[in-house]
Amino acid sequence: MQEANKIFGPPGTGKTNYLINKVLDLRDNKHVSPSDICYITFTNKGIDEVRDRLGVVKKTEGYESFATIHGLCNKYIKGEKSRLVNSSDFEYWASKERGDVKKEYGSDFDNNFIIQVYNLQRVSNIKLTDAFMKLNERNYKWKHVEYYVDSWHKYKENNDLHDFTDQILHALKVDQFQNYKAVFLDEAQDSSWCQWQVIKKLMDKGSVEYLYIAGDDDQAIFDWNGGEVQYFLNLFKSCESIKLTKSYRLTQEHIDFANIVSSEIRMREPKKYISTKQESGELFYTDRFVPIPLDNGESWTIMVTGSRIMDEIKGILMHRRLWFKQITARGYVHYPVGAKIISALKCYFDLQANKYVSKSELLIYRTLVKPKNFKPKQWESLDPDQLYTAKQLEEMFGLDFSVSWISHFSEIKNPEWQKKQKYIKDCIEKGVDIFTKMPKIELSTIHGMKGGEDDNTVLVGNMEQPFYRKYNNNNTNERDSIIRMFYVGCTRAKKRMYIYMCPDLPYRFEFDKVFRKYRDRKEVA
Predict the structure, then answer these.
(1) Structurally, how many domains does the chain consist of?
(2) What mean pLDDT is reported for the chain?
(3) Are 163 and 169 in contact (CB under 8 A)?
(4) Are 471 and 463 spatial neighbours (Cβ–Cβ below 8 Å)?
(5) Do 326 and 334 meet the contact criterion of CB atoms below 8 Å apart?
(6) Which residues are within 8 A (CB) of 438 and not within 5 positions of it... i.e. 6 or more apart?
């Protein structure tokens, strides 16, 4: 092998840029054809970034193996009658099962406990009981979970369905990987057992001349999804270790603070990196949320560990009449008020401002507001290619857009409207743009913010009870996983970072000790 590197890239040091520059060097200087290069990362967004830097589009010939690991393996399952499972399949299966699977174990396909246990067992190649014990934080009964996992597996088989993990396992079984000259793996610290098997299969072909594996063990926070950081640390020990040492995102103050957190991780590769920024970063520790200047017009991201704390912060934001979007660990986007209500309000304000609206907008509006002269057939007969004005709708349905929006929507029986009407009213009176898809404030789990950054961040130092148990556990792996999670949270800010401890929530990370160490070191310096 001509070159084999393991690249350790702390936050903001540009490990993806390092890999892309290596691809460019192979392609342009060493004359390695793109079709002989396999570049694997874990999100479509990551692959799009790589293709954009290389100046190619998705279907450019020769770049088919620049893909997510599932995308790479998917071609080996094509041609079969099996199709990829989706949330509708889960909904149908759950509706036919005895008991309320969604209510008991989670209504969302990706976050349902049954599906999580089933997936973890396969990606990690462990016993089903071990997967159950690792994830069981709500004291579910094993006999029920075992039954449902078996039922879901049989449902997939009987209906010729496969999931993302099946794509990898099937590709490993058929072993038809092509011979590549170069293999790249980004975000390697979060790879699972079965994903590492793909890399080993590619290497076993004996054709690989260039190997580049990049990641940061301190940012390995997806153990609950099968990520195994020890593989990144211990496999391919013959690789030359390259440690990137300059962060283009973080200020030196934030690096110094984050390093105190990461120093508590017991199983890690030591690293030292510095900031390239000339300006200083601001750092605050507080148990009061009101003084945090979230309404200063700048961009903010608030990070939490889980759903309970997210609900607490959502309540605080709504009480302060702040508009925000919420990002889940799986990347789903939610807003404080449902899309149907927001669409109906926007339709009203557009009509009141003498703007035109379409039939599709009117149909959403009509699901909430019942016109006096309500005639369903007449509404359905509206021309989808025509735009309508307030005057036309007043003549057709007796709608009055001259009254205030509060009066106009006063008789809505929608439960969410009844609950959030005051919040909506307060936001509108404050001049908040509730129709924007890009609010200045983003509320995210730490996992959902992995790989992201913002000018200003608020990291909530409280944690869910299961995380707290792990943090106080003598098990090194479990304690390390919690410290890594908060380390990731400490390394997202480009300018200003607040550590907020909510007095109403009991379980806390020891940020008070971190701050004392940070201040002591600054005073000595």
Answers:
(1) 4
(2) 90
(3) no
(4) yes
(5) yes
(6) 325
pLDDT tens, position by position, 438-474: 999 999 999 988 889 999 999 999 999 989 999 998 8
Report the sign of the C-alpha dihedral through residues 173, 89, 41, 193, in that order: negative
Are 183 and 155 members of one domain?
A: no
Q: Is 235 helix (H, G, I), strand (E, B) or coil?
A: coil
CA dist., res. 365 & res. 384, Å (int): 15
> Quick one: 12 and 149 in the same domain?
no
Tokens 């078996």 belong to which residue? 150
Three-state DSSP class for 525?
coil
Contact (Cβ atoms closer than 8 angstroms) between residue 303 and residue 458: yes
Q: Which of 16-25, 164-173, 477-486 has the lowest mean pLDDT?
A: 164-173
**Percentage of the chain lying above the pLDDT 70 cut:** 97
3-state secondary structure of 184: strand
* Residue 516 within any structural domain of the chain: yes
Largest CA distance in the chain: 79
CA distance 274 to 252: 6
Position 221 in a domain:
yes
Last residue within a domain, chosen from 127, 159, 191: 159
Q: Which of 430, 447, 482 is the last residue of a domain?
A: 430
Residue 170 inside a domain? The answer is no
Look at residue 82 and tell me whether its pLDDT is greater than 90: no
Residue 476 or residue 443, greater confidence: 443
**Per-residue pLDDT for 376 more than 80?**
no
Instruction: Show the tokens assigned to 21.
Output: 């520059």
In a shared domain, residues 443 and 520: yes
Q: From edge to edge, which strands make up the β-sheet containing 210-215? A: 66-68, 37-41, 182-185, 210-215, 3-8, 240-243
275 with 234, same domain: the answer is no
Distance in angstroms (rounded) separating the CA atoms of residues 281 and 254: 7
Output the six-digit token pair for 105. Answer: 């174990």
In sequence order, the β-bridge partners of residue 454 are 493
Q: Do both 236 and 257 map to the same domain?
A: no
Q: How confident is the model at residue 36 (pLDDT cuts 50, 70, 90)?
A: very high
Please tell me whether residues 195 and 71 are part of one structural domain: yes
pLDDT in tens, 210-229: 999 999 999 999 998 899 99
Local structure of residue 260 (DSSP, 8 states) = H
In the structure encoding, which two tokens stand for residue 14, read together?
């540009």
The rounded distance, in Å, linking the Cα atoms of 7 and 241 is 6
Residues 345 and 414 in one domain: yes
- Which range of residues forms the domain containing residue 151? 83-159
CATH of the domain at 184: 3.40.50.300
Task: Judge whether 104 lies within some domain.
Answer: yes
Rounded to an integer, what distance in angstroms lies between the CA atom of residue 387 and that of residue 243?
59
**CB neighbours of residue 437 within 10 Å:** 8
Q: Is 285 helix (H, G, I), strand (E, B) or coil?
A: strand
Q: Does residue 379 share a domain with residue 263?
A: no
CB 59 within 8 A of CB 204: no
